[in-house]
Inverse folding.
């Protein structure tokens, strides 16, 4: 039977191309993204290992707060340093200060944009055993306005020793004198990130806090191990500080980064799996059609004495060969894809230097397994059908497969649909914390239900969609409609593949539109100001607090109110804490008192949103214990429970700017946004104020001044960007679904050779043949698209309804986008039919009518 | 031999060939399917083409019907030279002036009997002449079966639909390729009766390829082909006279 399988494989290789392509694409995407993320991860592992290579022990604070940027630690006091130096076995110890800065070019614009690699400011370490930097030119920074640039920064900005360079930080733009250019080990940068080096006190004021370090780096004497040294130091240092080995420190940084890469990698993996899932429909369809077309051959085998098991095995083996081959080629393509993307990322400076391609064996193995198993499983049902072909079928005419509406199928489909609908209802109305997961599960069941029930609804659906075509183009429309209806299982499986992709697109589009509408609504309802200043930077490189004062002094400005953010552990988890001047901000953004007074929020006090207070069961007068990243453990009194429509970040904790300034060092006393209200809010007044405001914001690199409409647009643009990324990732699933349409049409054309020959013989023109195939393709495409969109909209509505507490208050359907999707679906249908229609039209009439 | 070697296309012939040669393959495997065949088919007559397997009778029909190409010679339908036509013009010719009845797989399975009958006219975008349609349907006796799909019809009924389709567009000539080959003798005789009626009552021209002497006896004339050559021509054939002729070719 192996011989029969192999012969079958060779004979049907053209028909198996689409199956192979769909498996190949999915596996290539899956393995490619895994290889890429592993490579990037490995490259950054090396960066961290390089950067921290000279450190044997790190001494740092024990206070750690989780932030959206990863865990951060409180700074450590200079006073610990002499203690560390005094420990036997220590050869050298120095405090390290690191923070983000912006080195400016000669036009005062940041050399490294917000999308580029980070731009760090560091202190120059004097001890050769700790300092990884070597000067290419000039001397180390000593004076307060000395700066040393890395080779790349110097090249980019065209700076040389002796030049003046501007750096932007909290205190605005400051001028420094380039005293040296340095490289890190053999690298032109600090392991991919660009860096500038300063004397310790200078960088402390610029990004940190005078008298403190981020950590203390220790180099041990040769005869002491890292562990011994760290144990010795641990005993000597005061409480609130800890010593860990350099190896542990490196590993921590590596794993923090790996976690971020891991999230990204999982995100990509989800799309790879969606693509493979869609591909499974094509595999199922191909094998179903091949089995149907081979009924006579299989029956002959059975009549000649082949057992059911042998027939089953021969089909499964065929699937195995196809799946494995396509998966192997897929992994190969994936690796090539990863190499290409890696080169691209290096060229735009996103990745680390000389990133080697890492091919993790597990990823390769899993990709191969997933590709092969999906092919096998998808072919299993058709194979079982093949095994049930009775020997007598060899003697009969091949019956057209019109099965579809079996009662079992209807019942099973309806049960699944009911289950999905119930989960949707329960997720929305049940007071469960996992409402979203339940809705997601409901969506899954609805998809499966529609796939199961598809053959039943395919006929009426194709009939309805084909009706206008029949009216418009008579006989070709009539034949296309009938062809789409004649094989419900095939039509519905083909459409289902598209339905899944389009369903997800519709779901994302509706959700995104609702988020955008809600954001705009919220801004409309809560912001009474006319201008907003924003920045993409955070902390020491954000907007200096003095900027709000400067804006306040511009003629025509009633008030300029800033918002800052810091982090604190509340309970056991890190939270964003916002800081505002309550009186000023209340004039620009509407805050309503639910309990207590928001406007009088002062030092020692904290405000909570209505939802937060309800969730935590808080009332005015309650103490709230926080451990701030900088500023340590503090107990604040809850004096205000407020309500606002404004889409604020974080859970809803707000403190006053005065309180904020007692918690963070001057280098961090910045705003992330400033809202401006004018005296004259007429459009003439708004225009008149612009030059004065612009003069202030132009002085701060990275500050972006927007009027309210521009601000709303920039907020919704962020959603659009995310939307585009998701669309690009879903495109693969859609392409595979279109390949499925091409595949089904091709196999159908092959199957209908005689019928097409007859039609041609009695006078159908090639154009009419092409038009018939094209219309059939459009019917299938539209079927998948319309069902997909309806499901997408329903689940988009469910998600939006479930997220009403998270500030998504409006449900909006992006009609224009949906219309575009439908038009694209029609065009895709026409496109998918191009090759099959050509094949059909080119059929040799004589061979078609005389073929057996 | 009544081959008309001289021609400007006479008005009495529905189709004729002039020294048509058709070869398959090349070199050692060269097969001459039609060897210098000149034959004409008269209007309003029922002509049968007979011959043993491999005699080239089907090839001749396919070539005259514009389904296959020839190597040398010329073929005329009416006074139109087929060799000058491209695919589009050939298609139109088949649609508008030729009718077909094949041995099997005559009908489009997704269309009803009536839709199959009007298919060539639908393809042309013409509205069928209702009165004529009724006449045809009555002649082949399909009145109550018109809304059925082919799978719901017996083999004989399917061939009747095929004959009705061929007649419906009133083509200049109908080609029938072993139309009774797959039928039992009763259904077969019915189909042959209908074709005979069409020639007698409606003056339809029919050319039929067959290897069945009984079927050939329904024709006005039988053309015999052996090894790609026209070897005989028999007027007013009977079953016996056909069998006798065939014996003489050793077929």
């Amino acid at each position: 039977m192996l011989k029969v399988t192999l012969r079958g494989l060779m004979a049907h290789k053209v028909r198996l191309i689409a199956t192979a392509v769909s498996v190949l694409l999915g596996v290539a995407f899956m393995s490619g993204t895994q290889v890429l993320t592993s490579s990037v991860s490995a490259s950054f592992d090396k960066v961290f290992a390089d950067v921290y290579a000279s450190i044997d022990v790190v001494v740092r604070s024990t206070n750690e707060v989780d932030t959206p940027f990863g865990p951060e630690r409180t700074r450590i006091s200079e006073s610990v340093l002499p203690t560390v130096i005094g420990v036997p076995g220590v050869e050298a110890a120095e405090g390290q200060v690191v923070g983000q800065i912006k080195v400016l070019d000669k036009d005062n614009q940041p050399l490294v944009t917000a999308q580029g690699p980070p731009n760090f400011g560091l202190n120059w370490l004097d001890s050769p055993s700790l300092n990884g930097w070597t000067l290419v030119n000039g001397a180390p920074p000593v004076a307060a306005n000395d700066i040393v640039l890395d080779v790349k920064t110097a090249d980019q900005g065209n700076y040389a020793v002796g030049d003046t360079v501007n750096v932007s930080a909290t205190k605005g733009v400051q001028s420094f004198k380039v005293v040296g250019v340095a490289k890190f080990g053999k690298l032109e940068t600090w392991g991919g990130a660009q860096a500038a080096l300063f004397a310790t006190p200078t960088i402390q004021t610029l990004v940190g806090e005078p008298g403190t370090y981020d950590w203390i780096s220790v180099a041990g004497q040769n005869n002491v191990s890292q562990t011994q040294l760290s144990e010795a130091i641990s005993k000597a240092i005061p409480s609130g500080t800890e010593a860990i080995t350099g190896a542990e420190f490196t590993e921590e940084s590596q794993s923090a980064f790996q976690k971020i890469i891991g999230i990204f990698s999982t995100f990509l993996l989800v799309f790879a799996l969606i693509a493979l899932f869609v591909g499974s429909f094509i595999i199922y369809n191909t094998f179903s059609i091949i089995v149907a077309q081979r009924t006579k051959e299989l029956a002959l085998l059975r009549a000649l004495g082949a057992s059911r098991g042998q027939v089953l095995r021969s089909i499964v083996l065929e699937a195995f060969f196809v799946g494995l081959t396509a998966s192997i080629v897929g992994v190969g393509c994936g690796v090539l894809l990863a190499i290409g993307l890696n080169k691209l990322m290096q060229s735009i400076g996103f990745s680390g230097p000389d990133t080697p391609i890492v091919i993790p064996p597990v990823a390769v193995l899993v990709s191969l397994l997933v590709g092969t198993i999906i092919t096998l499983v998808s072919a299993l049902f058709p194979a079982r059908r093949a095994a049930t072909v009775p020997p007598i079928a060899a003697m009969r005419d091949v019956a057209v497969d019109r099965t579809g509406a079996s009662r079992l199928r209807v019942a099973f489909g309806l049960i699944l649909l009911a289950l999905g609908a119930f989960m949707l209802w329960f997720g929305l109305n049940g007071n469960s914390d996992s409402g979203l997961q339940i809705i997601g599960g409901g969506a899954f069941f609805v998809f499966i239900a529609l796939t199961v029930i598809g053959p039943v609804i395919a006929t009426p659906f194709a009939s309805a969609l084909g009706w206008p075509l029949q009216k418009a183009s008579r006989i070709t429309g009539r034949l296309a409609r009938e062809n789409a209806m004649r094989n419900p299982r095939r039509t519905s499986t083909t459409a289902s593949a598209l339905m899944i992709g389009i369903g997800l697109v519709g779901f994302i589009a509706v959700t995104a539109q609702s988020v955008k509408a809600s954001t705009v609504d919220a801004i409309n309802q809560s912001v009474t100001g006319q201008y907003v200043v924003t920045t993409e930077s955070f902390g020491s490189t954000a907007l200096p607090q003095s900027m709000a004062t400067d804006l306040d002094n511009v003629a025509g400005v009633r008030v300029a109110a800033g918002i800052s953010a810091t982090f604190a552990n509340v309970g056991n988890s890190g939270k964003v804490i916002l800081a505002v001047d309550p009186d000023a901000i209340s004039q620009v953004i509407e805050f309503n008192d639910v309990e207590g007074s928001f406007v009088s929020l002062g030092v020692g006090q904290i405000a909570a949103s209505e939802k937060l207070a309800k969730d935590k069961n808080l009332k005015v007068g309650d103490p709230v214990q926080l451990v701030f990243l900088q500023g340590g453990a503090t107990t604040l009194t809850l004096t205000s429970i407020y309500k606002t429509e404004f889409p604020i970040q974080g859970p809803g904790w707000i403190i006053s700017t005065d309180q904020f300034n007692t918690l963070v060092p001057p280098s961090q006393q910045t705003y992330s946004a400033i809202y401006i209200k004018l005296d004259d809010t007429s459009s003439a007044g708004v225009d008149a104020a612009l030059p004065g405001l612009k003069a202030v914001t132009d002085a701060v690199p990275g500050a972006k001044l927007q009027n309210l409409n521009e601000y709303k647009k920039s907020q919704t643009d962020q959603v659009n960007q995310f939307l585009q990324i998701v669309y690009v990732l879903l495109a693969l699933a859609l392409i595979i679904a279109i390949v499925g349409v091409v595949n089904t049409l091709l196999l159908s054309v092959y199957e209908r050779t005689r019928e097409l020959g007859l039609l041609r013989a009695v006078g159908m023109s090639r154009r009419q043949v092409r038009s018939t195939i094209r219309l059939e393709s459009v019917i299938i495409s539209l079927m998948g698209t319309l069902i997909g969109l309806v499901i997408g909209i329903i689940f988009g509505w469910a998600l939006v309804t479930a997220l009403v507490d998270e500030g998504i208050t409006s449900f909006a359907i992006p009609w224009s986008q949906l219309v575009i999707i439908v038009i694209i679906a029609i065009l895709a249908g026409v496109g998918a039919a191009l090759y099959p229609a050509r094949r059909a039209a080119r059929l040799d009439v004589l061979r078609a009518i005389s073929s057996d | 031999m009544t081959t008309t070697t001289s021609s400007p296309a006479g008005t009495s012939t529905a189709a004729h060939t002039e020294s048509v040669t058709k070869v398959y393959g090349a070199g050692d495997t060269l097969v001459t399917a039609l060897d210098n065949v000149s034959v004409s088919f008269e209007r309003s007559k029922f002509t049968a083409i007979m011959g043993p397997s491999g005699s080239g009778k089907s090839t001749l029909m396919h070539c005259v019907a514009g389904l296959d190409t020839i190597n040398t010679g010329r073929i005329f339908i009416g006074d139109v030279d087929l060799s000058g036509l491209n695919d589009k013009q050939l298609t139109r010719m088949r649609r508008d002036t030729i009718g077909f009845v094949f041995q099997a797989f005559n009908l489009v399975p997704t269309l009803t009997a009536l839709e199959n009958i009007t298919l060539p006219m639908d393809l042309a975008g013409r509205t069928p002449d209702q009165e004529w349609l009724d006449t045809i349907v009555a002649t082949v006796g399909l009145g109550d079966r018109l809304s059925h799909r082919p799978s719901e019809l017996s083999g004989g009924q399917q061939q009747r639909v095929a004959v009705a389709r061929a007649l419906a567009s009133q083509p200049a000539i109908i080609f029938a390729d072993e139309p009774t080959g797959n039928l039992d003798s009763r259904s077969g005789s019915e189909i042959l009766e209908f074709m005979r009626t069409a020639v007698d009552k409606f003056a339809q021209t029919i050319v039929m390829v067959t290897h069945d002497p009984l079927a050939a006896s329904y024709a006005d004339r039988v053309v015999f082909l052996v090894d790609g050559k026209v070897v005989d021509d028999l007027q007013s054939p009977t079953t016996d006279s056909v069998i006798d002729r065939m014996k003489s070719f050793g077929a």
